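Dear colleague,

Thank you for sharing your sequence with our group. We've completed the structure prediction you requested, and as agreed, I am returning the results in plain text so they can be pasted directly into your records. Please verify that the sequence below matches your submission; if there's any discrepancy, let me know and we will rerun it promptly.
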Amino acid sequence: MGHMHHFSAGWVSPVLAYAMACVGSALGLRCTVRALAADGRSRRNWLLTASVAIGSGIWTMHFIAMLGFGVTGTPIRYDVPLTVLSLLVAMAVVGAGVFTVGYGRARLRSLLLGGLGTGVGVAAMHYLGMAAMRLHGHVGYDLGLVVLSDVISAAASTAALWAALNVRGAAGAAIASLVMGVAVTSMHYTGMAAVRIDLEPSRAPLAGATPMEFIFPLTVVLGSFLFLTVAFVALSPTARERAAAASAQSFHDAELPIFS
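Please find the predicted structure tokens below.
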């Protein structure tokens, strides 16, 4: 049995992981709200941005947390194609959930399906990311905890989507993203508690990349992308602000002749 330590980097990895999950969620939920106020291509683009943001937020959270994960008695490597696949799957499955919310007719049903889709996306990403792990031994899971991690993920994702769509203003957005951050992080650590590792000591070299070679650079790139997009979305006017600006302009134009 391999002794696992989840916090080998101290408190930095869980705190940073939670922060990334919140940033990705805040951006994704914000874009989902924007999408519902838009239509046509604009709506589709907001929903795509939301899927990419939540997907990469989840992925970054998982692998920052995994930077603190070690097993005594074996090095750990990651299979590069599977790791990239886990990122794409996260975006695709979360995308299915987000688009369900964006285009659903029946509000409650699309919210439940959207939350379930997003929750499944979080879980699929997590277990694919775990499947990418290479070590000297076998990785097994406690089924009960795996199921619990999936339930947490779906329930909290639904709650976050509900809050994002129903609670108005910045406070609502903040609460929703914190809830979503909790969803992703608690799903992760519940999923990690389910892991059972049987070591098979060996001197053979492991295939794959070390976390620092591959995961760390990708995490930095995705993190930067998220922060830049957050700034862009925060600064870009909402449909309501644009309409207000346009009506103010036409009002202004109508008044000019009096003074000329």
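Summary note from our side: Residues 4-259 form one domain.

Kind regards,
the structure core
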